[in-house]
């Protein structure tokens, strides 16, 4: 935080230094109030699907312990 000019935690809260990218306006308004978002994206349903998919992959019952390859997770 010091590198971006914030010296106290109180200054960090409400500083509006960030913008939500890739999350739709409905989710941003509900969970990140007063945070700007110019680029729309996924909603809660898609977020839940991604989390469930990753959880199921990580905790699969038939998973072989030797196969520890990590998914890239991006484009």
Task: Write the topology of this structure.
Blueprint: H1 9-12, E1 21-23, H2 25-31, E2 39-42, H3 44-58
Parallel strand pairs: 1-2
One letter per element, helices H and strands E, the order comes to HEHEH
In terms of DSSP E residues, the strand content is 5-15%
Walk across the major sheet and give the strand order: 1-2
Mean pLDDT: 78
Please state the CA-atom Rg, rounded to the nearest Å: 18 Å
Head-to-tail CA distance between termini: 28 Å
Low-confidence stretches: none
The tally of strands reads 2
- Helical fraction equals 25-40%
Number of separate structural domains: 1
Largest sheet: 2 strands, parallel
Number of helices: 3
Structural class: alpha+beta
What is the overall silhouette?
elongated
């Amino acid at each position: 935080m010091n590198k971006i000019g914030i010296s106290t935690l109180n200054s960090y809260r409400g500083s509006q230094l960030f913008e939500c990218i890739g999350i739709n306006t409905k989710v941003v308004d509900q969970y990140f109030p007063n945070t700007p978002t110019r680029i729309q994206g996924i909603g809660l349903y898609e977020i839940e699907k991604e989390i469930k998919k990753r959880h199921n992959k990580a905790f699969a019952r038939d998973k072989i312990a030797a196969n520890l390859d990590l998914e890239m997770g991006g484009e």
